Amino acid sequence: MMTLAMGNADEKLKILQVGHGEKFKKRLSDMGIYKDAQVRIIRNDIPGPLILDIKGSRLILGRGQAQKIMVEGV
C-alpha cells in the first residue's frame, strides 16, 4: 500500500482509501476517484501535479491531494 503521489508514470492503480474529510471524499468521488476505482498515472513530475487517466478522462490532481489517497498496483 502506498500513496497515489508515489506512483510512477503509466502505472495502473486501484484506490484503496480516500482520507481526510467528507467534503474532500465527496469532491473526489464526483471526479471518479473512490474506493475500488482504477486509475492510470499519465504523468508524475516532481514537483508538480499528477495527471491521471480515469475511465478515459484526464484529471489533474495536486500532489497534496494525491498524498491523501492510498492505492495498490493492479
Tell me what the structure shows.
The chain is an alpha+beta fold and 74 residues long. It has a single domain, classed as Roll (SH3 type barrels), CATH 2.30.30.90. It contains 2 helices and 6 strands; from the N terminus they run ββαβββαβ. A 6-stranded antiparallel sheet has the order 1-6-2-3-4-5. The model has no long low-confidence stretch (mean pLDDT 92).
Which features does this protein show?
6-stranded antiparallel sheet; alpha+beta; SH3 type barrels; 2 helices; single chain; 74 residues
Report the β-strand fraction as a percent range: 35-45%
What radius of gyration results from the CA coordinates?
A: 11 Å
Q: Please estimate the helix content.
A: 10-25%
Q: Provide the low-confidence segments as ranges.
A: none
Termini separation: 11 Å
Structure at a glance:
The chain has 74 residues and is of the alpha+beta class. Helix content is 18%, strand content 42%. Strand 4 (50-54) and strand 5 (57-61) form a beta hairpin.
Task: Please give the structural blueprint.
Layout: E1 2-3, E2 12-18, H1 22-30, E3 38-44, E4 50-54, E5 57-61, H2 63-66, E6 69-73
Antiparallel strand pairs: 1-6, 2-3, 2-6, 3-4, 4-5
